[in-house]
Design a protein that fits this description.
Helix 8 packs antiparallel against helix 12 and helix 12 crosses helix 14. About 4% of the residues have low confidence. The chain has 3 domains: 131 residues, Sulfate adenylyltransferase; 155 residues, HUPs (Rossmann fold); 41 residues, no CATH class. The protein is of the alpha/beta class. Strands 1-5-6-7-4 form a 5-stranded mixed β-sheet. The chain has 14 helices and 15 strands.
């Protein structure tokens, strides 16, 4: 008996296949055939709904290429991820694709200096396969169950959502989240979980967000969901796919930052308008919020649209600049990042940083006089409090 043929896919491809299988990118439910793929790439629509590019599977590699060239209609092949069978495809057809055009459709460029283009080039082959498929990926099923349970538990009638990188989590994110909560019965925060190692690790960003949510938000109003940010969400049309995903997860509204670099969502005015026009058929409300800054005259976070003071009074929430402080081991000013969040991130990023931590704590910090075991996170919190002492400044 002839051995069953296999295609080898990475976790990024598996995650995306699982999203589609679960109906989270509905009306898309399957891999597109050649004719469908070409039509979507031209019209940017699929079954009457905006869809920025074709959904295809074209895994790279010599072994995959050899298998793809040999496939016949009706063959059932295994999908293998990290040495394990994770699903099957019943082959409809195979067809050649142009990788450069595919990159252009996703990112608006095929320039290898673009990080998304570089990453996708490393995993994109030249032959696609279409057909009915099934995959197993528990994370997606768990996400759907958690959201449904939370909506049922809270009786939420209007559910809002935010796609957040929180890289790192800062005060502007806090303000955006609080505003979204006040406008809805329930807020779903989709925390982006990329398949690259850039920026803070996902677990550090997740713990920082949990620290804020558990201590400073009403527990029955917010739910944090891991959102694997695969290549299809990394292009310049990410807002369209974010909106489709949020709608199919059961959300009524998607909140996005307008010109807010901290969220990785920058759209110039003309393109923002055209994208919103394009999203009308998705049947979800898309709400933009203005950029938040700290004003040293107002002494608080303000919208750039409501503050009367000039740019020279504003402190901006630029993620890259805040990240450089954190990666250098410096504590960001509390006007940028809440002290509890800073302490959480720094303790995770620089474990066992200090020799004789307990001695330092006892020597530097006011206390009851009792020698108690202190964690690095507690040390940072106390240190920040010393920085905030103003009598000698």
């Amino acid at each position: 008996m002839q051995n069953k043929k296999s295609l080898y896919i990475d976790t990024e491809a598996l995650s995306t296949l699982a999203l589609v299988q679960a109906g989270l990118l509905s009306p898309l439910h399957k891999l597109m055939k050649k004719e469908e793929a070409e039509e979507v790439d031209v019209t940017k629509f699929y079954k009457g709904v905006p869809f920025p590019f074709a959904f295809i599977l074209a895994p790279k590699g010599k072994r995959n290429s050899k298998v793809l060239q040999s496939l016949k209609h009706g063959e059932v092949i295994d999908l293998i991820n990290e040495g394990k069978k994770v699903g099957e495809i019943t082959v409809d057809e195979t067809f050649a694709i142009d990788p450069l055009q595919r990159l252009q459709n996703i990112y608006g460029t095929s320039d290898l200096s673009h990080p998304g283009v570089k990453n996708t080039t490393a995993r994109l082959g030249e032959i696609a396969v279409s057909g009915e498929y099934s995959v197993s990926y528990p994370l997606i099923e768990d996400n759907i169950k958690r959201i449904k349970n939370m909506i049922t538990k809270t009786g939420a009638k209007f559910v809002s959502s935010i796609m957040l990188a929180a890289n790192p989590f800062n005060r502007a994110h806090e303000r955006m989240i609080r505003q979204a909560i006040s406008d809805s019965d329930l807020l779903i925060i989709f925390l982006r979980k990329p398949f690259t190692s850039e920026g803070l690790r996902y677990d550090i960003r997740h713990n920082a967000l949990i620290t804020f949510a558990d201590n400073f938000l009403p527990r029955n109003k917010v739910l944090i969901i891991p959102f694997e940010n695969s290549y299809i969400f990394a292009g310049y049309n990410e807002l369209i796919l974010d909106a489709i995903l949020a709608k199919n997860y059961g959300c009524d509204q998607l909140v996005v930052g307008k010109n807010h670099g901290g969220l990785g969502l920058y759209y110039d005015k003309n393109r923002l308008s055209s994208i919103f026009d394009h999203c009308r058929n998705i049947e979800i409300d898309i709400k933009t919020v203005d950029e938040y800054v700290y004003c040293d005259m107002c002494k608080t976070l303000v919208s750039t649209q409501t503050c009367p003071h000039g740019q020279h009074h504003h402190v901006h929430y630029h993620s890259e600049a805040i990240m450089k402080l954190i990666q250098s081991g410096l504590i960001p000013p509390p006007i940028l990042v809440r002290k509890e969040v800073s302490a959480n991130i720094l303790a995770a990023l620089f474990p066992e940083r200090f020799e004789n931590l307990q001695e330092m704590h006892y020597s530097l910090m006011p206390g009851s006089g009792l020698l108690e075991q202190q964690s690095e996170e507690q040390f940072y919190l106390k240190l920040i409090e010393l920085y905030q002492t103003t009598s000698l400044t």
